[in-house]
Amino acid sequence: MNRRKAKAKVARAHRKVRNARADFLHRTSTNLIRRADTIVIEDLAVANMVKNRRLARVISDAGWGEFRRQLEYKAERAGRTLVVIDRWYPSSKTCSNCGHLLAKLSLSTRHWTCPGCRTRHDRDINAAENIVAAGRAVAGHNPGDACGAGVRRQGSSLPQSALKQETRAVRRPA
Ligand SMILES: [Zn+2]
Prior knowledge:
Elements: H1 3-35, E1 36-42, H2 46-51, H3 53-62, H4 64-78, E2 81-85, E3 111-113, E4 120-122, H5 123-139, E5 168-171
Parallel strand pairs: 1-2
Antiparallel strand pairs: 1-5, 3-4
Helix pairs in contact: 1-4
The protein binds zinc ion (ZN).
């Protein structure tokens, strides 16, 4: 295969990945908007995180900014509420059971036990619980009617902690 052909092939492969990713983001955002009245996301500081070289690829690859943009316009179009939680809210380090705040939680720690109430946490699920609770407080929902839905990135071999994966949906009562 000559050089030009090889180059074209690589470009095609890149295009394919881009399309698959765009498709995934659209399907995921549409799905969330369809089944939830209120969607809570964390305002991840995409620009700041991209300055951190280790996180840059992960964040850019995940298309978080684009995902949020899609949720915003789709929520508006469908009359849904999108709640964006402050990026400095310590969603990962706070125990969703008792509110204990850890001084430190490294990115590589996937599970931890709360020193306050001994609850064992999955890092991402705990963060999601906190974010959905904060979102409910903002949106004024009563605490009984929500359940969450995690959003997983496609083919995730990435350190998911960097994304925290805490997009959760507040479902309509059945
Ligand atoms: Zn606790």
